[in-house]
Amino acid sequence: GPLRKHDLNELLASVGDGTLSAAQVLLTVYPEEPAPKASRKRSARANGKDEGRGSVRVTGRASGLAVRFAPEMFPLPGERIVGIMMPGEGVTIYPIDAPALEEFDGDAQRWIDATWDIDPEHPQSFPARLRVTAKNEVGSLGHIATLIADYGSNIANLSLAQRDMDFYDIQLDLEVRDLKHLTRIMSALKGLSCVNTVVRPRR
After folding, report:
1. What is each CA distance from 41 to 51, 84, 113, 115, 127, in whole angstroms?
2. Cα separation of 127 and 175, whole Å?
3. N or C: which end of the chain has fewer CB within 10 A?
4. Measured distance CA(144)–CA(30) in Å, rounded
């Protein structure tokens, strides 16, 4: 094919050693889609809108403090969030079900109420991460990429790793509007015959 690889094993090896980039793979399996644009970095500012027209609102003693999202947590509008006071850093926002919150269980003073403050007139994209186990067969990646595009999402990044002779794992970083949008994509992916499992990893 255009990537000049004989089979999936050779393709996986090329992505792993850097000979091919994820963007090159995406462009080949789904050429109609423009190359992914660099995601606009989301910032969050207490009690106001940020330049991306989406923000998180914190109240009470946290008002006016700097607010940021916990790295690699990927909270989405539509799910509950909570803020944790970080000395010298302001407030860090976590999804309410993040396992990382367990380390703060004994320190109630650090927990801050937080809510989404999204302007419905100006939809915003948020990053979300999925891990998909797919069958090691011709066309699997193309079917997955096509479905994601059909559901109005963009693949910002992907990584491939072979699990065994029959399956390989894909980590997908998507751009979605909210939790409902991601849930619809996950349900549709699970309906593909080439997909074995779809999970949203939590830390």
Report:
1. 10, 21, 23, 19, 9
2. 5
3. N
4. 10
Closest to 195 measured CA to CA, from 130, 149, 150, 151: 130
Name the 3-class secondary structure at 46: coil
**CB-based contact 129:158 (threshold 8 Å):** no
| Per-residue pLDDT tens digits for 147-200 | 999 999 999 999 988 778 899 999 999 999 999 999 999 999 999 999 999 999
For 143, the token pair is 């079917």
Question: What is the reported pTM?
Answer: 0.72
Q: What's the rounded mean pLDDT across residues 117-144?
A: 91
Give the containing element (helix H, strand E) for 171.
strand 167-176
Three-class secondary structure of residue 24 per DSSP: helix
Q: How many CA atoms lie within 13 A of 93 on its CB side?
A: 27
Rounded to a whole number of angstroms, the distance between the first and last alpha carbons of the chain is 38
- Quick one: residue 66, left, alpha or beta (phi over 0 = left, psi -120 to 50 = alpha)? beta
